[in-house]
Amino acid sequence: LQECKIQNSSREYCKIFAAEARAVPDFGAVPEIIPLYLIYRPANNIPYATMEEDLGGPCEQYCVTERDGSLVTRHTSEIVLKCCTFQHWVYQWTNGNILVTDMEGVGWKITNVRIATNLKGYQGLKESCFPSVLEQFAATHRCNHYCSILGLKTLEPAKPKGCKSPSVGRKSAQSSPQLQK
After folding, report:
1. Do 110 and 33 contact (CB within 8 A), yes or no?
2. Is residue 100 part of a domain?
3. Region (Disordered): which ranges (predicted)?
């Protein structure tokens, strides 16, 4: 159940991120976190299972949390850079309270996400990795071309507050899609 909450909540953040990214010329393709479904099988010895779409190939690790809690990207392809931009965006959107950490997938379809959070029980989520990853991310993230295209601010360790859109405070008049009707 927790895996479904984590992946599906991350998916919702990714949908908002995608809407903002698509509004920016030249951003290009956007990663998609696929849904993870919880199924109930009452006649089975293990009554609950998760199910997701077949990605059609072996998963590549784009970003992983090492055993020591450090966040590592595996290469610098466009998909990895955009996953890092998505991480930056979520971190900024939530004022440093949530970070989508591990991401792997096939092409632009992402699965097996994990999160780190400072918010105890935020929307029923519990961190699935070291919360110290939040501070480490803020200290080590290096903005890339896609962070610049979206106008994301350079990260500084945040004082946890409520969540807001990373578009607040941008120089352009563009507003977050969640505010538009």
Report:
1. yes
2. yes
3. 158-181
CA 103 to chain centroid: 8
Q: Does residue 162 lie in a domain region?
A: no
Query: CA torsion, points 24, 122, 9, 113, in degrees to nearest 10?
Result: 100
Report whether 31 contacts 104 (CB < 8 A).
Answer: no
160 is a domain residue: no
pLDDT of residue 121: 55
173 pLDDT more than 70: no
Range of the domain at 122: 1-150
pLDDT in tens, 26-45: 899 999 999 988 888 888 89
Whether the Cβ atoms of residue 88 and residue 78 lie closer than 8 Å to each other: no
Sign of CA dihedral 58, 73, 24, 138: positive
Our count of domains for the chain comes to: 1
The CATH number of residue 78's host domain is 3.20.200.10
Residue 171 confidence class, pLDDT cut points 50, 70, 90: very low
Rounded to two decimals, the pTM is 0.80
